[in-house]
Specification:
GO terms for molecular function: DNA binding; sigma factor activity. InterPro entries: RNA_pol_sigma-70-like, RNA_pol_sigma-70_dom, RNA_pol_sigma70_r2, RNA_pol_sigma70_r4_t2, RNA_pol_sigma_r2, RNA_pol_sigma_r3/r4-like, WH-like_DNA-bd_sf. This is Sigma-70 family RNA polymerase sigma factor. Belongs to the sigma-70 factor family. ECF subfamily. About 70% of the residues lie in helices and about 5% in strands. It is mainly α. The chain has a two-stranded antiparallel sheet with strand order 1-2. Strand 1 and strand 2 form a beta hairpin. The longest helix has 23 residues. It is globular and about 45 Å long. About 5% of the residues have low confidence.
Length: about 180
C-alpha cells in the first residue's frame, strides 16, 4: 500500500490503513519526540496522542502537504500543550529562610476531584460495557490492570502496533459513547 492510498483509505475509516500509517510513521514520530524530551515514556505517550489526534482528524489532512510533516506538527503542539499544563499546575512557595523561590508540582487530587472521579467511575464502566468485547478488554488491560503495551501485546497475542491502534480506536469510540450519554 502506498502512503497516499493509505491516507485516502483511512479517511474512509479503513482500519488496515490506520495500521499501515502507524507502522510507517511510528518510529519517526517517537524518535522525534525522544530527541526533544529524552524520556522514553513521555515520548511514547506523546506519539500515541499524536496518532490518536491525527486519526481523529484525518479527514482534515490536506494531500498538498507531507503526511510526516503534519504528524510532526501535531506532535509538537501536543508537547507544547503538555508543557503549558505542567506550568499552570506549578505553584510557587517562598522560603522564609532565604527568600528564594521553589517550584512545587501539586498533582494531588482535591476532595472534589476524588468525589467526581468516584461518581464518574460507575458511569464510565457502564459506557465501557457498550463497546465491543475486544475494545472493552484492551481498555481494561491498559487502564484498570495498568499493563504496558508490551504486556497487553503478550496477553492478546498481537503485535504491539495492533494493540496501540486498537487502544486508539477504543478510546475514540468510548469518547463517542460518553458524548452520546452525556
Amino acid at each position: 500500500m502506498e502512503i497516499n492510498e493509505a491516507i485516502k483509505r483511512a479517511k474512509a475509516n479503513d482500519q488496515k490503513a490506520f495500521n499501515f500509517l502507524l507502522d510507517n510513521f511510528w518510529d519517526y514520530v517517537y524518535g522525534f519526540q525522544l530527541k526533544r524530551i529524552q524520556n522514553e515514556n513521555d515520548a511514547e505517550d506523546i506519539a500515541i496522542r499524536t496518532f490518536s489526534r491525527a486519526f481523529d482528524k484525518i479527514e482534515t489532512f490536506d494531500e498538498n502537504y507531507t503526511f510526516k510533516t503534519w504528524l510532526i506538527t501535531i506532535s509538537k503542539n501536543i508537547h507544547i500543550d503538555l508543557i503549558r499544563k505542567k506550568k499552570t499546575s506549578i505553584s510557587q512557595v517562598i522560603s522564609n529562610d532565604d527568600k528564594s523561590v521553589y517550584q512545587i508540582l501539586d498533582e494531588s487530587p482535591s476532595a472534589e476531584d476524588k468525589l467526581i472521579t468516584e461518581q464518574h467511575l460507575a458511569k464510565l464502566l457502564k459506557d465501557i460495557k457498550k463497546l465491543k468485547p475486544h475494545y472493552q478488554k484492551v481498555i481494561n488491560l491498559r487502564y484498570f490492570q495498568e499493563l504496558s503495551y508490551k504486556e497487553i501485546s503478550q496477553e492478546l497475542n498481537e503485535p504491539i502496533n495492533n494493540v496501540k491502534v486498537k487502544l486508539l480506536r477504543a478510546k475514540k469510540l468510548l469518547a463517542e459513547v460518553i458524548q452520546k450519554t452525556s
